[in-house]
């Protein structure tokens, strides 16, 4: 039978594994993003070969770096190729790009002789999130109207949101830019009006503002035939016919047409505003507010791009002279904001999240927004509005990702390489003759970016070295603060509170008192972070009432755990591993019920699973008030180590693991039998393989 305390993972594994992933994949990924660098004429090209990079052995080891007040780092060399197409020459050389700080085996960095720890940041992961917005219509009666929004969150680039306002109009919103009607944005992304009408189950919803304004009832698709492609096509044809009929009416000359010129046809989508030929009486009937609310209709991508650029630049008149210019500029603006991989990056996690949520099968290398993303997101938003699909809970851990030390260093190296690329491009312009390859490169951009990060970033902190426990908890800390996170002044109780998905992942007890309460947390004893940045916790499989301990641990993210019925970890089992007969207390997401043993899917691994390392050292924790337990867990980190350490009178069983994993205790490379101990040496006998 498995004994859980022997399966507690290495406490510093999170830091070490993340840095290993950075050296194995992250560094190569960042260098590949800058490949190739060319000049304007495209006759000179610099190409990196990041898969073959080399790290030289560090000049000082971690111990000497502390004594000499130096940085424990190693030189990064990358093979680089310069291609000159004019002279048909290829120059190949190993280039020193900069110095990469190395992590010690204890999970920290040594920068200028000081031990520093990079704290793990937990933030809203890149992807697509749907939320509910409540509007007050009448201030006295306080009547609330529910509307919905979809937000695209990226690793790097522009924030984008599709929102429905009080009047049920749908807009695309960006920061520091006027909001754009969604139909303009969809057409501007490359979709056609025909595709929109055929793909969306409710295409009339995008046009509702125009249809209501023109009082068109006879062209709407019936509710029964909303999913019928033929009905949508016929609706589309009707709109085109009626708009053409209106055009011919306006351009025709004749007495009858002059007499009937004041009578407006029931449909005209592309001409929402009142024509100049209409009488002043009709013009005065409509208020200025109403005119502003209804944007101009676009029925093609070119028209949409033209209107988008006019809206951004606040141009009210579009002439035939500047039409083509507006279309070109609109295309450039859309490309720069959402389709250029150098300015907009969803990241691997963002693309995985979008593919999963919208049931798409786009390649993981596609890190920018596509027309399919925005089209399916629009369909999803319309279904959320109808109540067919739920909104997202942002506090759920399936929607939050952990940025480990490797992710933060990788982002900083990306900034350094971007600066290096700018330097190279400027040297391409200034140099009249083709110099040596070394002329283009300097170590300043990369080293400067890393120095900035370790010196000024709030997530890079001096290691807490009062005792081994303080050091360990510092390396396993999770914070919502810092760049890209929340502000401690504006954070609400929803963000600070405990969520059902925190079970086995984030400790509900250990958190600071004061402003940072609930924003700075600790990882639990058994939890780990997977490559996607999601926190996982282990469970035992239960099959027909029998706990399958020999099958090992099953690690689950919060997404999978929602659907499972989980029994507590301290239930007494029979000798054959069966759960007791009768009703057993079990949990399904946030509901606690008593169920039969055959209904249980999984069982928690240990009672220690839901608390952190520091909290697990508090004896009889279940009898304490939560506030006092919080103080006890925090104050253990402030204890000064004794000259002659003594064993705890009342212990919990995890005391030995903390100094062992922190690196403060002498550890052998292999296990064995201790045969001799003195002040000078320790002899260990082991079986050599």
TrEMBL record:
Compartments, as annotated in UniProt: Plastid, Chloroplast
Signal peptide coordinates: none
A single BP term in Gene Ontology: DNA-templated transcription
InterPro entries reported in the protein's UniProt record: DNA-dir_RNA_pol_bsu_ext_1_sf, DNA-dir_RNA_pol_bsu_external_1, DNA-dir_RNA_pol_su2, RNA_pol_Rpb2_2, RNA_pol_Rpb2_2_sf, RNA_pol_Rpb2_3
Single GO molecular function: DNA-directed RNA polymerase activity
Enzyme kind, highest EC tier: transferase
GO terms under cellular component: chloroplast; DNA-directed RNA polymerase complex
Reaction(s) the record says it catalyses: RNA(n) + a ribonucleoside 5'-triphosphate = RNA(n+1) + diphosphate
A Pfam family the protein falls into: RNA_pol_Rpb2_2
Domain DNA-directed RNA polymerase beta subunit external: 540-606
Keyword Chloroplast: yes
Bilayer-spanning residue ranges: none
Functional description taken from the UniProt entry: DNA-dependent RNA polymerase catalyzes the transcription of DNA into RNA using the four ribonucleoside triphosphates as substrates.
Protein name: DNA-directed RNA polymerase
Gene: rpoBa
